[in-house]
């Protein structure tokens, strides 16, 4: 039998279950180099938004490849689509932006 010792004191609260589940989901979705590049390119753009065509050009990828990864990010709620005229702009969901920015630092 092992004697149990108390955990050392730490500053701040323990991560709650729902916060841990959301963070885990986000980490799974962004754990891909192409998706990290897409997010970085969007955040680094002038208005923090971009189209699939712009992302494909900047990253040297095909539009179908970008669309595939964008769909995953949109389905998880990391990115939002904003139709404007004949363009569809992609940007980070405001509720997830801080977490993504922290991951990209």
TrEMBL record:
Residues 15-105 form the HTH arsR-type domain. It comes from Microbacterium awajiense. It comes from the Bacteria. It holds the Pfam family HTH_20. The keyword Transcription regulation applies. Keywords: DNA-binding, Transcription, Transcription regulation. SMART domains: HTH_ARSR (SM00418). This is Metalloregulator ArsR/SmtB family transcription factor. InterPro entries: ArsR-like_HTH, HTH_ArsR_DNA-bd_dom, HTH_MetalResp_TranReg, WH-like_DNA-bd_sf, WH_DNA-bd_sf. PANTHER family: ARSENICAL RESISTANCE OPERON REPRESSOR (PTHR33154:SF18), TRANSCRIPTIONAL REGULATOR, ARSR FAMILY (PTHR33154).
